[in-house]
Amino acid sequence: MTTHPALTATPSILWRWTNRTPNASAQARTALRCALDQLGYDGDAIGDALLAVSELVDNAIEHAVGPYEMRLLRTSAAVICEVEDHDPCIPKIPELPAEPPFAPAEEDRGGGLEALCALLSERGRGFRIVHELTQGVWGFTQGERATKTAWLAIPTASWPHAEPVEQVA
Known about the structure:
Elements: E1 12-17, H1 24-38, H2 43-63, E2 68-74, E3 78-85, H3 112-120, H4 126-133, E4 138-142, E5 148-155
Antiparallel strand pairs: 1-2, 2-3, 3-5, 4-5
Helix pairs in contact: 1-2, 2-4
C-alpha cells in the first residue's frame, strides 16, 4: 500500500449510491468502464481497474455506512479512482506477502468437492486482490467529514509497464 499521490485536479464524481441501491458493484463497474473508455484505456488496464474497484465498492457496502461516492481524479502519472463511505475507521490491512497470492498448496490437492467449496467460501482476499491488480498502488485516506476514502491508481500508460506512482516502504 502507498500514500495517496499529490492531486492537481478537482475530482469528477462518477456515481453516488446508498446501501439500498441494487447491484451497486455492477453499476460502479459500468460507470468506471465508460469513464476509462472515454479516457482512452483499454484491455487489461480496464479489466484490472474494474475488478479492483469492485472489491473496494463491495468492501464499502459490507463494512461501512452510506451514502457512497465513486470519483476519478487525473494526475500526471495516473488516474486515481476513489470510493468514499461514511465510516471514518480505516480497516486494518493484513500483511501482504511477496509470493503469488493463490499458489496451490500440495497438501490441499485432491480434497474433492468439499475442499473446493471450503476454499471458495474463504473471505478476506479482497485487499490482496486489489494489491495485486494495482501493483501495490492503493490505500485509504481519512476524510474531514467522518468519512474515509479507499483509492487506487490506474497508471496513464498501459499496465503493467507504467512507472509506479510514488511507493512508500
